[in-house]
Structures are given as structure tokens and as C-alpha cells.
Amino acid sequence: MLGVGILGAGFFGAFHARAIATLPDVRVVAVCAEELALAEAFAAEHGGKPFGDWRAMLDDASVDVVVITAPHHLHCELAVAALAAASMCCWKSRWRCRLPNAAASWRQRRPAGAN
Q: What is the pTM of this model?
């Protein structure tokens, strides 16, 4: 089973959760929103453990893949952190990070010593 954590409990998070529900061997295991009550309501409808702190969600061992549906200005920080936590990461918007941040996220994901 592949566990998906969703960062963002709004419209696009729900859109992705419904799509994930149609996939075999994939399920939403976590959802995070700045307001825990939003994450709890989302989890009640779509499943997963609710979080009010994205760092805690990324530390959850059941999260294999992170889908970022938070506001665009947060994507870079969240993507770099998800990659550093060794999670696969998916976000729908254009890359909002500039070159130095993109390079940082790439270095986070690559094993030490790899080219």
C-alpha cells in the first residue's frame, strides 16, 4: 500500500483525494492544514490522519508520497522539506522556486556522492 499525505485541505486537496480513492493499493494516510479543524473535517470525509503542522505530517512513517495543494507561495518550502524527508513529492503548479531553491531541492533528494 502506498500512503499519500496531502498538504492542503481545500478544493484541490479534495480533488486529489477523490482521484487517489480510485487507485488500487494507494490511499490517503495523512492530511495537513494550518487549522487542525480543517484537516479533521477533510480526514472525516477522505480518510487519513489529520495534522495541523506539516513538519509532523512529514515525520509520519506512513507517508510515502506528498501531494502539495497548499497555496502557491508555500510550495517551495514544502517541496524542499518533503524531499528532505525522503518522500516522493508532487505539486500541480509551475515551479515557484527560483534556481537556487530548485538546486537545493534536487540536492536534498539525491543520495550523497551521486552526480
A: 0.79
